[in-house]
Inverse folding.
């Protein structure tokens, strides 16, 4: 555990002395802010239209009109942003040969993988926590159901973990950070598209299995406020699989 | 302390090291000497458990590098050819991180930090970013990293690379001071370094051990003739031929710009007095007469070239 802590502390330190975290954080927060602003404005326009039709102010559902579209867009944003956070994790160690230090120290490779993953994950959770300002401000002026908002955040947090683990795996495959980032974009978009592919194949075992593999239908339920064990298991097992693959890839490089 | 038996490492069809066997005793300083690409780094990487050998057994302090890598790694300080530095950290941050992944406690770490900072004169740069340090300082931080947890075994891949002459002497002194208490393997392609610091030299060429001996032993063993240098004040024109006529002489090299003849005798014959008398009796004026021993450099070149000639 001390080794995991050491790796984690070093990763956080490296993140904050490089511009990556600031740029990634700023871009993510800005886009999230713009998206939620647009959603709020859109909700306002709809309210005005409803008033013209019904002649009275209708009860607006902020959950449907603001939070759901924002969460859906945020999923795309983290898909674009998180690979940038993970691309250096192993690629840089190999390029700068610091990998030799890690692998000749009395620590286990899984401690390195977990430490690095946790470092990136804490950064992501920090970014996510900062977006909490949007529901907090809205709660001052309006009332809405907090439950789907919190499960939406849970969905983002779980999906982010899966994305980061995938990014870590991609970073283990190459010495080149650009290649690592591109690989994780590719992998994530492919898995995303499995949802659409599954629905094309129709409601049969093969189609359903393929749809199940996409992270989007699991996320959709969470955003609507439904917490289902199978969705949680999907994300956690996907994350564990990716971390395991990263571990195997790094380990296998010693044998070549 | 270190036992290596028939280690072979293949990368695909390429054999980096081939059935290498040697042992290092506790407290001994051993040098791997060989041209670039001879397999020195590969051998070191196997000993530090960075990569497994294709065949063979390597043991450090009784622990097998393949079966008990963590135990081996605990006992080894390793300086790779490229010092493994995180450019974005300061020297203190970096060494603290290294100490923690080496499993050092807070107290050990504090005293270890003070010790290596003093030994490698890093005190002045302890709060500077590694990226901003000169090559020499970076190399010293790399060494500090290897020494930090005071491991009984040190494996140093070209420890004086990139240092200036003064620093090279300091680092050699440091390595010499480690002898006795620590077991050290260092690799180098600089011959005087091996002679200066090591008790034993392993010469590697094309992945195979060509010779193992002390620096003196190596040059003695490989000497195939006695050489004597003779400088004469007033040499007659045919002096070279007259020398050739002397008993026991194998060959005579004509004077170069130094004005001295180099006479090669059969091994085990000391004919200096005879030679001196010969020159003095003829009244040519003897200026200088001394035996020339074969340097490690000659040995190295002879061994490695010989090896290439075979293939």
């Amino acid at each position: 555990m001390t080794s995991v802590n050491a790796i984690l502390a070093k990763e956080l330190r490296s993140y904050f002395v490089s511009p990556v975290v600031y740029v990634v954080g700023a871009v993510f927060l800005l886009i999230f802010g713009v998206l939620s602003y647009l959603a709020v404005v859109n909700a306002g326009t709809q309210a005005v239209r409803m008033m013209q039709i019904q002649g009275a102010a209708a009860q607006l559902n902020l959950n449907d009109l603001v939070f759901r579209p924002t969460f859906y867009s945020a999923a795309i944003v983290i898909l674009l942003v998180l690979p940038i956070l993970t691309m250096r994790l192993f690629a840089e160690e190999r390029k700068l040969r610091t990998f030799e230090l890690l692998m000749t120290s009395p620590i286990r490779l899984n401690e390195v993988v977990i430490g690095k993953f946790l470092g990136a994950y804490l950064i992501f959770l920090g970014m996510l926590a900062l977006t909490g300002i949007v529901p907090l401000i809205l709660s001052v002026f309006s009332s809405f159901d907090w439950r789907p908002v919190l499960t939406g955040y849970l969905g983002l947090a779980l999906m982010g973990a899966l994305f980061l683990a995938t990014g870590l795996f991609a970073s283990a495959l190459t010495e080149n950070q650009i290649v690592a980032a591109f690989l994780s974009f590719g992998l994530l978009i492919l898995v995303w598209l499995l949802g659409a592919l599954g629905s094309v194949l129709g409601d049969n075992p093969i189609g359903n299995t393929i749809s199940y593999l996409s992270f989007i239908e699991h996320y959709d339920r969470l955003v609507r406020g439904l917490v289902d064990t199978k969705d949680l298991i999907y994300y956690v097992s996907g994350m564990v699989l990716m971390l395991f693959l990263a571990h195997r890839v790094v380990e296998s490089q010693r044998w070549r | 302390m270190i036992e290596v038996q028939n280690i072979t490492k293949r990368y695909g069809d390429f054999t980096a090291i081939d059935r290498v066997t040697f042992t290092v005793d506790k407290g001994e300083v051993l040098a791997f000497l060989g041209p670039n690409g001879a397999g020195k780094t590969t051998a070191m990487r196997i000993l530090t458990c960075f990569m497994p050998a294709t065949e063979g057994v390597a043991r450090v302090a009784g622990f097998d590098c393949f079966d008990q890598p963590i135990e081996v790694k605990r006992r080894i300080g390793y300086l790779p050819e490229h010092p493994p530095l995180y450019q974005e950290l300061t020297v203190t941050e970096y060494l603290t991180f290294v100490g923690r992944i080496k499993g050092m406690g807070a107290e050990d770490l504090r005293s270890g930090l003070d010790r290596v900072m003093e030994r490698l004169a890093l005190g002045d740069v302890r709060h500077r970013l590694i990226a901003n340090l000169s090559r020499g300082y970076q190399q010293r931080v790399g060494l500090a990293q290897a020494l930090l947890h005071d491991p009984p075994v040190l494996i140093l891949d070209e420890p004086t690379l990139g240092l200036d002459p003064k620093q090279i002497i300091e680092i050699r002194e440091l390595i010499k001071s480690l002898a006795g208490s620590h077991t050290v393997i260092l690799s180098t392609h600089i011959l005087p370094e091996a002679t200066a610091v090591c008790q034993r030299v392993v010469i590697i060429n094309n992945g195979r051990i060509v010779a193992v001996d002390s620096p003196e032993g190596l040059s003695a063993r490989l000497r195939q003739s006695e050489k004597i240098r003779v400088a004469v004040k007033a040499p007659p024109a045919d002096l070279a031929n007259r020398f050739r006529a002397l008993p026991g002489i194998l060959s005579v090299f004509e004077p170069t710009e130094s004005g001295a003849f180099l006479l090669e005798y059969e091994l085990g014959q000391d004919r200096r007095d005879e030679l001196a008398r010969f020159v003095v009796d003829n009244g040519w004026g003897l200026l200088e007469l001394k035996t020339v021993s074969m340097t490690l450099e000659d040995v190295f070149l002879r061994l490695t070239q010989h090896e290439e000639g075979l293939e």
